Amino acid sequence: MQIGFHSQTFYLGDWQQAWQARCPSWSLVNAQQVPIQTLEALLIWRPSQWDWRAAKQLKLVIGLGAGIHNLQQDLLLPPGVPLLRLQDAGMARAMCEYVHYGVLHFQRQFDRFARAQQQNRWLTELPYQYSQHTRVGLLGLGHLGTAVAEYLAKQGYQVSGWSRSPRQLAGVHCLHGLEQLEYFLSQQDILVNMLPHTAQTEGLLSRQRLQQLPRGAALISASRGAVLEQQALIGLLDSGQLRGALLDVFTQEPLAEADPLWRHPRVWITPHHSAPTLIEPAIDEILAILPRYLSGTS
Ligand SMILES: NC(=O)c1ccc[n+]([C@@H]2O[C@H](COP(=O)([O-])OP(=O)(O)OC[C@H]3O[C@@H](n4cnc5c(N)ncnc54)[C@H](OP(=O)(O)O)[C@@H]3O)[C@@H](O)[C@H]2O)c1
Questions:
Q1: Rounded Cα distance, 229 and 287, in Å
Q2: Arithmetic mean of pLDDT, 29-54
Q3: Closest residue (by CA) to atom 3 of ligand 1?
Q4: Does residue 48 surpass a pLDDT of 90?
């Protein structure tokens, strides 16, 4: 059996090597170089424009990441073919590391030390800020948000989380629904965006909502850029209402060369790399899914 692979960003050769070691009986092939009618499953990420509707044997498409909002909009698939996303593929651990780095950055005041260094200034007067006095709020308590919230709670931070429906997590103060959002925001020293991009979450972090954070709060945005109004963020950083931001995701990616965020002294940028799909754990997850959808396999 051949499993089709199509991505503009992932290199097929890397995936084939790991795939062969785990599943020599099925081949992973370039989906654009085999007859489209033979494809039974398709692994896809950041696709080029391609019409898959002639793939009449297709039983399943798997997006090689956690966010498949764009794939849902862009892919032309035969009707009724399910589009699944990867649940973890190593991403939860990577996201915990990334957010912990960002939280430490602000808690241990590396932003202030970096500015002092620019001025050759020996800055000793900053008080030590305890992790147990640092309030961190996770917007979104799904697979990744929950992993990060529980991880930070174990490190001793005061962690709370906000989601659509009620949740209960050990060591995490959970709130939900739009009616609790303003109170949730007002309680955070560091806000972490872990929301997916949907019609409801687009622009959710507007100027008005960001202003509900306490003066001097910091933002870590690591899920999807469209949740955040970037212009509003810049204005609030300029006015000192917000202290700084660590941003991994943007409304437009790659971030345009002329974008003012690049040079903003209170912004730290990473190129959508907080939790990359890791090939080996991703293939393990895919191999656990495929038999449920493909006939004649077990
Ligand atoms: N930057 C990167 O490298 C990277 C890597 C992986 C993933 N991501 C992004 O991270 C996002 C989150 O991943 P995940 O696996 O945690 O997603 P998930 O399991 O789908 O969880 C989404 C969470 O957001 C909440 N939510 C969704 N819509 C909401 C709304 N309108 N109001 C309030 N809460 C809402 C959900 O609440 P309920 O539980 O109540 O439904 C849930 O808690 C992905 O969608 C992806 O875009 C980024």
A1: 38
A2: 91
A3: 275
A4: no
**Whole-model pTM?**
0.92
H or E stretch at 29: strand 27-30
Pocket test for ligand 1, best of 72, 98, 141, 144 (most atoms within 8 A of CB): 144
Percent residues over pLDDT 90 in the chain: 90
- Average pLDDT, rounded, for the chain: 95
β-strands 172-176, 2-7 pairing = unpaired
Q: For residue 254, is the peptide bond before it cis, meaning its omega torsion is within 30 degrees of 0?
A: yes
55-72 pLDDT, tens digit each: 999 999 999 988 777 787
**Under a CB-based contact definition with an 8 Å cutoff, are residues 213 and 186 in contact?**
yes
pLDDT for 68: 78
Amino acid at 271: P
Nearest CA to 230 out of 196, 199, 188, 269 is that of: 269
- Residue among 248, 235, 218 nearest 94 (CA): 248
List beta partners, residue 61.
42, 83
Q: Rounded to a whole number, what is the distance in angstroms from the first to the last CA of the chain?
A: 13
User: How many secondary structure helices (H) and strands (E) does the chain include?
Assistant: 9, 12
Is there a contact between 84 and 60 (Cβ–Cβ < 8 Å)?
yes
> Six-digit token pair at 49?
């424009």
Q: Helices 279-289 and 12-22 sit at what angle, rounded to 10 degrees?
A: 60
What lines the ligand 1 site, CB under 6 Å? 65-67, 91, 140-145, 163-165, 194-198, 200-201, 222-224, 248-249, 272, 274-276
Of the candidates 70, 28, 2, 34, the residue with the CA atom closest to the CA atom of residue 283: 28
Query: Which segments of 69-128 does DSSP mark as H helices, in order?
Result: 69-74, 91-107, 110-118
Query: CA 280, 284, 286 angle in degrees (round to 5)?
Result: 115
